[in-house]
Amino acid sequence: MSENKDPHVSTPESRESEGEKFVYDFTEGNKDLKDLLGGKGANLAEMTNLGLPVPPGFTITTEACKVYLESGEEPAALRAEVSAHLDALEARMGKKLGQADDPLLVSVRSGAKFSMPGMMDTVLNIGLSDESVVGLTAQAGDERFAWDSYRRLIQMFGKTVLGVDGDLFEEALEAAKEAKGVTVDVDLDAADLKKLVKQFKKIVARDAGRDFPQDPREQMDLAIKAVFDSWNTDRAKLYRRQERIPGDLGTAVNVCSMVFGNLGPDSGTGVAFTRDPASGHQGVYGDYLQNAQGEDVVAGIRNTVPLAELESIGKKSYDQLMQIMETLETHYKDLCDIEFTIERGQLWMLQTRVGKRTAGAAFRIATQLVDQGLIDEAEALQRVNGAQLAQLMFPRFDDEAKTELLGRGIAASPGAAVGKAVFDSYTAVKWSRSGEKVILIRRETNPDDLDGMIAAEGILTSRGGKTSHAAVVARGMGKTCVCGAEDLEVDTKRRRMTVGGRVIEEGDVVSIDGSTGKVYLGEVPVVPSPVVEYFEGRMHAGADDADELVAAVHRIMAYADRVRRLRVRANADNAEDALRARRFGAQGIGLCRTEHMFLGERREMVEKLILADTDAEREAALEELLPLQKADFIELFEAMDGLPVTVRLLDPPLHEFLPDITELSVRVALAESRKDANENDLRLLQAVHKLHEQNPMLGLRGVRLGLVIPGLFAMQVRAIAEAAAERKNAKGDPRAEIMIPLVGTVQELEIVREEADQVIAEVEAATGTRLKLTIGTMIELPRAALTAGQIAEAAQFFSFGTNDLTQTVWGFSRDDVEASFFTAYLEKGIFGVSPFETIDKDGVGSLVRSAVAAGRATRPDLKLGVCGEHGGDPESVHFFHEAGLDYVSCSPFRIPVARLEAGRAAAGSTGSDSR
After folding, report:
1. Which sites are catalytic (predicted)?
2. Whole-number Å distance between alpha carbons of 81 and 23
3. Is 383 helix (H, G, I), strand (E, B) or coil?
4. 865 near 800, Cβ under 8 Å?
5. Is 890 labeled as catalytic in the residue annotation?
């Protein structure tokens, strides 16, 4: 989806003139108001409504953010609304924001409709100042806690609000720990932290050009603006493009009274999942960190303990948390991701959301919830998507292979990833663009690493757990990830990693297994996934983990097949691909490209046809090709017996079957210099020059070939008809469909069809066999789509060739533009996704819709399909369902994805996202 603004949204002026409410107390909203309150704000309101322990606060709406982003200024009414809600919050808490003796502190957190972990800004401990830190000390009875909270505020505020380089604070913190001779923050005492606060304030003054603000309201107002601004940071835009999140949604801002997990050993913070987000299994999953604030957990800068250990640390809080988790999962009827803080034994809920999960977990959880009676099969189908299914079909490491184990971390996001070790995002992107596969290795990742994470095959960190930034983002993107591999010492400055005395330099190949957490040296061979083995009929559901996943996939696929309207065919050019497609559930072949049958040894026969000077020579060349074509079709009809097979007649430019013009010219020139020139090479060179075109994809190809080379299409039709007759006489059930490519006017189709009908009649007479061959065309030119009503008079079916249709509608040469300027178009938000990957609904899609309507108006029983690459794209499948097509056709390995998405489309899904 594009970052462009929606032209239909209301203007800032209209929203304010309508007296729109821009601030909601947590008691006023609910989980269904995500468009207005963002996911975080809506769910905080929902938990408040459920009576769960949520710190009081309020949410500034996404509409306020939109006004700010569009006009550059906050809504005029916003400050007064914030003040009114802040007054109410202060009255409820019995203290004022930042007051000297007993300060109210708040957090200011982002919260868009769709989860964007770590991509936007958060500031904790707002309200602290040189005066109020003394009051906080008295209030908490803990000087170290107060100064630790203050240094955190200056660090976060300086980086996110004032734009100070975050590394400057980190370096100062590391230096303080080194001077103290400690390795973790909690070992710094109050005196150390006071010194650090002074140093942090000097960094702010020097690098921000202003002092750290002492006015608590100024802190809050600047933080709110910073959160609004963070919607349009480069990393947020990149994440939205990756996840196909619209760019005009804006973010809400949540102002919440602070609760503190850094008040000592009876305090802490954590993240919990109601089920394992990596596997889907039920149990106690999550991370807990004593004496810490929430950012310490998700940042992965300190290694956590498993959530189960909370039971021995604070059983009362643990039991309450388990009860709340059960309440939330039953209420949301899904896996919930929960952030919580314990302040001196008191549990507080800071956030809940439907949790991101791996592809395998998505399928397992969907079927588990059906079995528990929480959702039905139709809803289970909406809980998964084709992109997740495609991930499950990726290969996995071979358990029998000889490996060299380097270490083991936390299995954060499954998959088998192999690549060269790189230690920063810039190198990951650079090497990836050069065709290298890389593994991004970091101590921990942060939002600035997003572009490197996207470029990498997998992510490996030495710190953090299943809820760290690396883990959450990797799971959302379907990237393999291993976190918290503590035995690995990562040195990003020296670009290397050491483990047990072994040094791994940048460029060395490593393999990571996101399902087991194992890290290997070198390339580990892979084997097919159990899901692919299931689709190929080589695996059945059983009791072990892999079989449990297969059983979940089987159940959901079976339901999708029952409810879908769209049939799914394969693009296959030979019997081997056809048989594989059939095993994957193909209901026929939607595209057999006959030009692939003319390659290899047969190329010489095509050369004879091109070089033919007389009718006799041309007919002889066609006679030589006929039995070979017939044999190809017999194999294909046998493999797909009883199912339709759409055969596209020869489509590419003829020069593709001739030698390269440069190589041939050099060969002829060298031969002439030796005075031993080959007559055939000379004729070939003349033919190559004669057939050379500046833009061959818009030249002599498709139906044009059939019209200017007598007998070419007739030979192919005869081969199809004779193969069908032979198969039928052998008690088979061939269902051939002949497709004429690149038709732009009905007259072209009428001429070819007349010739084809004559050939078919001749074959029927000669074999004594009645054939039911249908003749149709590809709609791949704008003119064909615009005159579809006329073309339908001569066509029994249409198949939309969306690859060429996209090229001709946009004026793009796919082979050139994707490598030249598509990256810039994606970065600038002109495209949300390549129009060759997902169909352009407004442009190309408009032509498809009009052609469907016009074609069926002429011929109500017109069969309609699509055979371009879009036929296997999840989002495009939904479009084709809505447009009224009868089938989609795609490559064999994408057939299960198309089947699943066709089912989702029929069951009422509004899209293929599962965020």
Report:
1. 469, 867
2. 6
3. coil
4. yes
5. no
Q: Is the pLDDT of residue 581 over 80?
A: yes
Q: Max Cα separation, the chain?
A: 106
Average of per-residue pLDDT across 12-26? 72
Name the one residue in this structure whose structure tokens are 């192919």: 716
Write the DSSP symbol of residue 104.
B
Question: Is 648 annotated for ligand binding?
Answer: yes
In three-state secondary structure terms, 779 is strand
pLDDT in tens, 86-101: 999 999 999 999 999 8
Instruction: Tell me if 4 is assigned to a ligand binding site.
Output: no
HSE, CB side, 13 Å, CA atoms: give it for residue 631: 7
Q: Does 804 count as an annotated binding residue?
A: yes
Please give the Cα distance from 183 to 296 (Å, whole number): 15
Cα–Cα nearest to 120, from 26, 215, 252, 220: 252
Q: Are 230 and 447 contacting, i.e. CB atoms less than 8 angstroms apart?
A: no
In this structure, what token pair is assigned to residue 726?
């032979």
Q: What is the pLDDT of residues 395-435, one digit of tens each?
A: 788 878 889 999 888 888 878 899 999 999 999 999 998 99
Closest CA to 3 of 627, 825, 640, 807: 825
Q: DSSP string covering 245-263, please? A: --TTS-EEEEEEE---S-S
N residues, the chain:
915
**Res. 382: pLDDT tops 90:** yes
**Residue 52 in this model has a pLDDT that exceeds 90:** yes
- pLDDT-derived band at 691, boundaries 50, 70, 90: low
Per-residue burial over 734-747, b if 16 or more Cβ lie within 10 Å, else e, is bbbbbbbbbbbebe
Report whether 780 belongs to an annotated binding site: yes
Q: Which domains does the chain have, with CATH numbers?
A: 64-75+82-257 (3.30.1490.20), 268-357 (3.30.470.20), 395-528 (3.50.30.10), 564-653+693-908 (3.20.20.60)
Q: Is 547 exposed, middle or buried (0-12, 13-18, 19+ CB in 10 A)?
A: middle
Pick from 696, 617, 687, 679: nearest CA to 659: 687
Q: Which of 65, 85, 469, 592 is catalytic?
A: 469
What pLDDT, on a 0 to 100 scale, did the predictor assign at position 4?
42
867 catalytic residue (yes or no): yes
Q: Which residues pair with 410 in a beta bridge?
A: 483
**Alpha carbon separation from 623 to 534, 605, 791 (Å, rounded):** 44, 10, 31
**Residue 7 pLDDT exceeds 70:** no
Contact in structure between 350 and 866 (CB atoms under 8 Å): no
Q: Is 803 annotated as a binding residue?
A: yes
Region of 38 please: left (phi>0), alpha (psi -120 to 50) or beta: left
pTM, rounded to two decimals = 0.80
Catalytic residue among 867, 870, 881, 890: 867
The percent of the chain in helix, strand and coil, each rounded to the nearest 5, is 50, 15, 35
> 665, exposed or middle or buried, with CB in 10 Å at 0-12, 13-18, 19+?
middle
Q: Which residue has the tokens 């793009």?
A: 812
187 is in an annotated binding site: no
